[in-house]
Amino acid sequence: MNLFMHYAFDVWIQRHFPQCPFARYADDAVVHCRSREQAQEVMHAIASRLAECGLTMHPEKSKIVYCKDRSRTQTYLS
Length: 78
Fold this sequence. Notes:
GO terms for molecular function: RNA-directed DNA polymerase activity. Residues 1-78 form the Reverse transcriptase domain. It comes from Paraburkholderia youngii. This is Retron-type reverse transcriptase. Keywords: Nucleotidyltransferase, RNA-directed DNA polymerase, Transferase. This protein is α+β, with helices and mostly antiparallel strands. The protein has one domain (1-77). The protein has two helices and two strands, in the order αββα. Strand 1 and strand 2 (28-31) form a beta hairpin. The model has no long low-confidence stretch (mean pLDDT 90).
């Protein structure tokens, strides 16, 4: 699975979204985006890419979260 995800996800996301650092743990991934709009675009693209590979995103685990700290005051979860 790890080798499959390397080519199906890791190489693909580096090629298509080089400005978005990511970490993948087995079949889970965290992708860092600069805006909610970018996060929505990336999430849609990942869903499409996984569908091309015969995979789907987990409907409950797959979401956009806002990483709040002292310099960020907005909150959202979708």
